[in-house]
Write a structure and sequence with these properties.
The complex is a heterodimer of chains A (about 270) and B (about 600). Chain A has about 270 residues and is an alpha+beta fold. Chain A has 9 helices and 7 strands, in the order H-H-H-H-H-H-H-H-H-E-E-E-E-E-E-E. Chain A has 3 domains: about 1-120, Tetratricopeptide repeat domain (Serine Threonine Protein Phosphatase 5, Tetratricopeptide repeat, Alpha Horseshoe); about 135-210; about 210-270, SH3 Domains (SH3 type barrels, Roll). Chain A is about 60% helix and about 10% strand. Chain A has a 5-stranded antiparallel β-sheet. Chain A has a two-stranded antiparallel sheet with strand order 2-3. The relative contact order of chain A is 0.10. By secondary structure, chain B is of the alpha+beta class. Chain B folds into 4 domains: about 15-130, Immunoglobulin-like, CATH 2.60.40.10; about 145-280, Immunoglobulin-like (Sandwich), CATH 2.60.40; about 290-415, Immunoglobulin-like; about 490-600, Four Helix Bundle (Hemerythrin (Met), subunit A), CATH 1.20.120. Chain B is about 25% helix and about 40% strand. Chain B contains 7 helices and 30 strands. The longest helix of chain B is centred in the C-terminal third of the chain and has 55 residues, at about 455-510. Classes of the chains: A alpha+beta (about 270), B alpha+beta (about 600). At the A-B interface, helix 2, helix 4, helix 6, helix 8 and helix 9 of A face helix 3 of B.
Chain lengths: ~270, ~600
């Protein structure tokens, strides 16, 4: 599906294996990941963005990635692309930067810096405006975005505990006033538990969406009306444009743009977030 | 009537004295240009009464005197708004005929007024030989025309320059050239001066003579404008259109009139059009200084700076005065780079300019008011003003000296001594640019946790929590129930326990054990209330008992009796007392308890 990426990963793994041949694998990867992370930060500070990209990519390859790793990697890609002042992002760095910001946000939707930088990176693409969602949907998603999936789960469990305590108080206390307060408290906390669980599930659903992709090409990608290179070219998105993959036909993917328009693009030109 | 006559008699005397006191002017009026074979007038006029026969004319050696000197005098008195003015005029006129072409001098004439001799300045007259085609009508130009040629009446738009820089000024005058008698101007359509800023000039509208295409014309200036091009490139001023009425004299050959000569005078209307004029407006040459703002001309700059030491929060001003000739009205105020802590107000512009034929001349004063808000030493950098000088074809820059200003603290506390460069006085913070935020440094963050929700552990936690709650509930409920059960039993059996204790007391009574009897009695009574109403013995008082009994609708007398029994038992416990009393107390206690029992049950 993504052969170049796989080759790079394989090469990096080979390097890792060659460099640290003796220790046990699990300890190895954690140590190498830490070293790569530090090396990446150092390279980034020294404006050696190509080296920073390589180092952060290795952390990703070692499966030690968190939102921050993807965020740093995306920043390194973005800066690397900007360093080429004559032809910025000529090597497809913008697409990679957008992809990794999206990945960081998929892992941690509350990552404020990633969202800010993605916004800036999107300014360099010709991405379309998303179809505006209804107020309720936007409210729901912005509420869900306040915490991560696990944050909401922990919150919901705490609320559940409190609700049960309130329920016990209602059932056991002899004082009428205390019973009334406890009853309503348990009712509210129970509803809050349901809400928090639903928000957590929303966040989980967003994190598990696997049909979102980013266009990764140097200049523009022709988007065809049907999975056939002879068909009409209906759009020419730049690198870094986000799409949703609807279905696949051979090595073609049907993608939907943010504004709702659909078209067919070669699978090699996109990468799933 | 008499008064008026007296006044009229006095009037000439008054006027004479006024005339005598005025400056006498003696002038010559002669055309600067005339054609060969064409007579012309030379008039000497004086505005005061000359002495008789004191006039001596010039010799006129190069001309033939056709007539003259003929004397004409005029005298007028005017009253305007009660103000009296009078003028006197005496003119000596010659009619001369040039003999040959060339430039000749009309010599000075002299005249005596009240013993003083005045002379005129010599005057140059140019005589030209007109070309052949025009020659025929030349001789008759002073006499009425018999026909009008195409070139006998012309309208020309004369411009002082056709090649100039943007912002420079040119003079454009619309002139009527005529060799025939023009009766009147019927209409005049001025051309639109698109691309120019135009101002009307005041001009001398006296007729004059001018040579054009080898012929001499009488010229009348219709209008004169000062034009300043506002854009570069070739600008065409379109034609002006004027309708004039011209006199034509026709000799009637058939009816010769011996008295009037048989000549008929006709008036015909003729439309005149001036030729369009193309003005080439040049763009400024390259290399304009930074402070160049379109000023063209020749200027000088002077400045008035505030005192070198001022107090903070006090108002002061810088004054710049720009004087010279050029497009003064279009000059924007030079910029002054005030320190940032200075509050600068709108620049006031006062101009004192007048239009002249070469452009706008005068001075403009710019006033820059400011308030220094913070104390410190500030430098107002040199103020530059650049202009393009079309005469030297170069840019010139005027500048003031840099000025150092010490702002003293006024003691109000609002003035802060801060370095002026880093101090931003008020205003919102501006976003200058945007870039991605910096990477996260520090330790490698832990690997992202998988979502916990809906995993077996999650369900386990939920189940455990609910189970725990149920367990806690069950345990607590059981304990509560047990506690409530004992209470109920004790309440149910309160009377029985009391009966048991009373029996025990009865035994002590029989044994004559006073102390033990009263102790048992008290225990029975306190214990009864405690068990009956689920109140710990320790917190029981007689008042509490009364309150509890009252709440349970037991008669007040009964409650009182109960407390009485307790009091008496307490007193009797340690006091030596008769044995018979024990029986009374016992009987009373049994009675009151049964009373309470029945009351509470009910």
């Amino acid at each position: 599906m993504r052969p170049i990426y796989n080759i790079i990963c394989a090469a990096l793994v080979a390097v890792v294996v060659a460099v640290v041949p003796t220790r046990s694998h699990a300890a190895d990867s954690a140590t190498t990941a830490r070293a790569s992370w530090d090396a990446g930060i150092e390279a980034y500070n020294a404006r050696e963005y190509a080296a920073a990209v390589e180092a952060f990519e290795m952390v990703v390859t070692l499966e030690e990635a968190s939102a921050d790793v993807y965020y740093n990697l995306a920043n390194a890609y973005f800066k690397l692309g900007q360093q080429n002042t004559s032809r910025p992002f000529a090597g497809g760095e913008l697409g990679r930067a957008v992809l990794n910001y999206e990945r960081a946000l998929k892992l941690d939707p509350t990552h404020d810096d990633a969202r800010y930088n993605l916004d800036i990176a999107k300014d360099y693409t010709n991405d379309t405006e998303a179809v505006p969602e209804s107020f309720i949907v936007r409210l729901w998603h912005s509420m869900a975005g306040l915490m991560t999936t696990n944050g909401w789960v922990i919150f919901s469990l705490v609320v559940l505990g409190l609700a049960l305590a309130a329920l016990c108080t209602y059932l056991l206390n002899g004082n009428v006033v205390v019973r009334k307060v406890a009853f309503f408290l348990s009712l509210i906390l129970g509803l809050l538990f349901i809400l928090a669980t639903a928000l957590s599930l929303t966040q989980k659903g967003a994190a598990e969406v696997d049909n979102r992709a980013v266009i990764l090409v140097n200049d523009t990608t022709p988007v065809h009306a049907s999975p056939d290179s002879a068909s009409k070219v209906i759009r020419e998105p730049s690198q870094g444009v986000s799409v949703e993959v609807e279905r696949r036909e051979g090595d073609w993917c049907e993608v939907r743009f943010a504004d709702g328009e659909k078209g067919w693009v070669r699978s090699a030109n996109i990468e799933i977030i | 009537m008499m008064r008026l006559r007296h006044f009229l008699l006095v009037l000439p005397l008054l006027m004479l004295s006024w005339v005598a006191s005025a400056q006498v002017s003696f002038t010559v009026d002669a055309p600067a240009l005339t054609a060969l074979g064409q007579p012309f007038r030379v008039a000497f006029s004086v505005d005061a009464q000359p002495e008789n026969g004191s006039f001596a004319g010039p010799s006129f050696a190069d001309f033939d005197i056709l007539a003259g000197p003929s004397v004409s005098t005029g005298h007028s008195v005017q009253f305007i708004n009660g103000k009296q003015s009078s003028s006197y005029n005496c003119t000596y006129t010659y009619v001369l005929m040039p003999r040959e072409s060339g430039t000749f001098t009309i010599g000075s004439a002299s005249i005596k007024v009240e013993g003083k001799t005045y002379t005129t300045k010599p005057q140059l007259v140019e005589v030209i030989a007109e070309n052949e085609s025009a020659g025929g009508s030349a001789a008759s130009s002073t006499s009425p025309e018999t026909s009008i040629g195409k070139d006998d009446v012309l309208l020309r738009l004369k411009v002082s320059s056709t090649d100039l820089y943007k912002g420079e000024s040119l003079r454009a005058s619309l002139v009527l050239y005529t060799r025939v008698t023009v009766e009147n101007i019927e209409s005049l359509t001025m051309p639109p001066f698109d691309g120019f800023w135009s101002q009307e000039l005041t001009f001398d509208n006296a007729p004059s003579r001018e040579e054009y295409n080898g012929r001499v014309y009488e010229t009348y200036k219709i209008t004169e404008l000062l034009l300043s091009p506002q854009e570069s490139g070739k600008i065409v001023i379109p034609e002006a259109v004027m309708n004039v009425g011209v006199q034509v004299v026709v000799q009637d050959k058939r009816s010769y009139d011996p008295i009037f000569g048989g000549r008929q005078v006709y008036r015909i209307s003729r439309e005149l059009k001036s030729a369009p004029v193309t003005i080439n407006v040049k763009e400024f040459p390259a290399g304009a200084p930074q402070s160049f703002n379109g000023a063209v001309g020749s200027f000088t700059l002077s400045s008035t700076m505030p005192e070198a030491e001022i107090e903070a929060n006090s108002a002061d001003q810088i004054e710049l005065t720009l004087s010279g000739t050029g497009n003064l009205k279009f000059i924007t105020a030079p910029r002054i780079a005030f320190p940032e802590s200075f509050e600068v107000y709108d620049t006031k512009v006062v101009d004192n300019v007048k239009l002249t034929t070469t452009g706008t001349t005068g001075s403009i004063t710019y006033t820059y008011p400011f308030v220094a808000r913070s104390a410190g030493t500030f430098t107002i950098p040199r103020i530059e003003f650049s202009f393009f000088n079309p005469e030297t074809q170069s840019y010139e820059t005027l500048a003031t000296e840099p000025f150092t200003l010490v702002v003293k603290d006024d003691g109000s506390g609002t003035a802060t001594t801060t370095p002026s460069s880093s101090y931003n006085y008020g205003g919102p913070m501006r976003q200058l640019d945007r870039d991605i935020r910096f990477i996260n440094t520090g330790k490698l963050p832990a690997k992202a946790l998988a979502p916990f929700i809906l995993t077996p552990l999650y369900w386990l936690v939920i189940v455990v929590m609910v189970a725990l709650a149920i367990v806690i509930f069950v345990v607590l409920r059981k304990r509560l129930r047990e506690r409530s059960n004992t209470v109920a039993r004790r309440m149910r059996h309160a009377d029985k326990i009391a009966v048991q204790r009373l029996r025990m007391a009865e035994r002590y009574m029989r044994d004559e054990n006073r102390h033990a009897f009263y102790e048992e009695m008290l225990r029975a009574m306190w214990g009864y209330i405690s068990d009956k109403f689920n109140i710990p013995v320790a917190s029981l008082t007689k008042e509490k008992i009364r309150e509890e009994l009252y709440r349970r609708n037991v008669a007040e007398t009964t409650a009182e009796q109960f407390c009485e029994v307790i009091s008496r038992s307490e007193e009797a416990q340690y006091a030596p007392s008769a044995t018979g009393e024990m029986g009374d107390i016992y009987a009373e206690a049994v009675e009151v308890i049964s009373k309470i029992e029945s009351a509470v049950k009910r």
